[in-house]
Amino acid sequence: MKTLHCRDAGFDCEGVIQASTDDEVLTQAAEHAQTVHGVTVTPELAIQLKGLIREV
Question: pLDDT tens digits for 7-25?
Fold first, then answer.
């Protein structure tokens, strides 16, 4: 299982995204960033986020 903690991306947020693949995590992270934080995930930001994804 892959996980991404929103706090690791620099947000004051307890959100944790979990999925089977990095791409699924990034898709969910983009939705979360837009709906919760009003941030659009650019290709550059996606690269940074991908580096924060951990295997659990």
Answer: 999 999 999 999 999 999 9
Long-range contacts, 26-34 (Cβ 8 Å, 24+): 26/50, 26/53, 29/4, 32/6
Burial class (CB in 10 A: 0-12, 13-18, 19+), 4: buried
Please name the amino acid found at residue 27.
Answer: T
Query: Which domain covers residue 34, as residue numbers?
Result: 2-55
Domain count, the chain: 1
CA 16 to chain centre: 8
Q: What is the pTM of this model?
A: 0.92
